[in-house]
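User: Can you help me understand a structure? I only have the sequence.
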Amino acid sequence: MKIQQKFLLLLISVALPPLIVLFFFHHQTMNQLGETIGTKTQEMLIQDEREFLQKTVDDYSRILKKDKEILETALRVQAREIERRLARPPSADQDQVAKFPEAFTGKKQAGMTLTGKHMRQTRPRGHPPVWVDYDHQVWFTPRGVDREALKEELDSLATLGKTYRFVYRLHPDHIYWQQTSLESGLLSFYPAHSSFPEGYDPRQEAWYRQAKRNQSLTWVMTEDPVTKVLTEVAALPVSTPDGAFAGVTSITLVNTGLYSLKIPKTWAQHVQVMLVRYGTQSDRPGERFQIFTHQASNLPGSLMTSQSERASTYKPAANEKALQKILADLLAEESGVQQIHHQGQNLLIAFGSHGPNETFPVIILPYEPIIAQATKIKTLVGDQTAKYLTLTGGVFVGATLFSILLALYSSRSVTHPVRQLQNATNALAGGSFETRVSISSGDELQELGDIVNDMGPMLLENQRMRQALTVAEKAQQYLLPERSPRFEGYDISGLSVYSDETGGDYYDFMDIPEDTNSLGIVIGDVSGHGIGAALLMASARGALRAYVSLQPGSLVKTLTMLNTHLIKDTREGQFLTLFYGLLEVGQNRLGWVSAGHEPALWFRKRTGTIVELPNTGMPLGIMPEAAFEEGGPISLENGDLVLIATDGIRETRNPKGEIFGLGRLQQLLIEHSHLTTRELCRKIVAVLKDYRQGTVQEDDVTMVIIKVRAEEYSG
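Assistant: Let's start by predicting it. Here is the structure, written out as tokens:
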């Protein structure tokens, strides 16, 4: 018996008994059904909203972290340019005349302008503007500092305004001020203005003191002394050429609002959204909230109360215990969605992931807008049930006859589309992606048919995408050296591990024309990773090989030509850091040019110490007029190691968000310097994998290791 006949008999046999039972028990059943529909709908809506809230705060947390990485990179570029100026003779640029605040007192003088973000916060009302000049930097000295004694530093930093303007253009929506305060008392400030407060000394500011104490990049939330608004300051120490502490350079940030946090229109009148910092300065967890910005004037239901109007610091309201389970997740630095009951109101509170002293989003949403639709459905079901019961007796006989006729029609209308769907799915499974069905039943079967029709092109596109990624991955692997170079008395190896199918890291070994005793060693890191980074990497590799053949003995000219080439190929925000070294095998010497790349590490076997080979220029593809200098050469001795790597090693993170760091890498080189370079490359990759503890590799890892006069080489 065919399925159509079975289906017909089944419909007839099961249709009549339910109709009879329905006649006697319809009232109770419909009431229970309405209650169940309302309850289940409410549960599904709440679950959907919880998942949407979680995804929303997680996505925005990732945006905040990405912005932070970009700004930290900009700050490091700013610091490198300052140290480069301090290390070279004073500038001869006569256009850069030293200007102090008194030169910017006229509001309408040339260059001065008003902006929407440089507004003073005064009490009780009023936001007077600060006149600024984006074309110049301004110098400032605290009371008691002799300006004449600072002439050499003024001349050295005379052209610093160009660097400020370049860094500002990288992220104009967030950058508020840029400043460099030297230990001598000299302050360089951008954009220029004349509104420094009485008695101001930047060396006493929290960002200066903490960066000086930490000797590393430091984030501080503080009140801006000029405008009195709450800001974040990223500060980084700078050093003199001999490595001594010279001062601190910083970028002051002001949040422009929740510009990329998308909130559904149905929430607009009910939701509370804010950016919060959960600091670690207080011993009492409830007093660590600092609200950076929010979209409404009051927190819902007085959930929190302000401690400091100026600092926007909040703590839980008096006798409020509902936040304790949320505080537990905040202490664990995890994102989450919590339900609490506060002052007779049920609330959903979603908060993003964060690290210590990091900003994260918080969304507070009442239950009522979520369950309003479910309540409406329950009411509608109840009304329709009452009306339907009055008609049940009259239509019972007609429904019985109609069910028999409907069974005859339904058996055909169901089984035929089912057969089409079965044949189509079998064809798709066999790789026939052009298969289509034609179903016009106007119900879920038609919708399912539309889905099947859409699946063919999607599966075909997915297959093409996978094939393209496979080809791209193989093509990029072909660009890496097939084997390591072999020179008597040397052990040299390279390794690259990508975080995606393709990446932006690469390394290369290049023969120098007409010089068989020299070897070019290159390692580069394109910002970002994936297809775009891989394409730029391939372009840079081809251009570099061509320029080496044109300028075989000049490192500086080669990188200058490559920078000019990349300026045309890179889009805004994309750049390439690159280390290009020239190893003179016969003389055991290594010279290099480093365009903003991670410093190479030189392990000296005789002393057991590690020396950093510093940068000699800024990253490629950013500024056409970028200048580069040659480092070294250094003289290598028996047993010495040189590690040239990308920042993917040092910035590898464990599940707690802690980076692997330079110290661990240096200790790893010292402890395993006896290994061959190939073994040492694999050892570093294995240690990084153990450090991640199962978390995803976030960045490409690439390295080249040179070892002098190693014993037996297994490679």
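Now, to help you interpret it: Residues 3-87 form the longest helix (85 residues). Confidence is low (pLDDT under 50) at residues 282-287, 296-319. Let me know which part you'd like to focus on.
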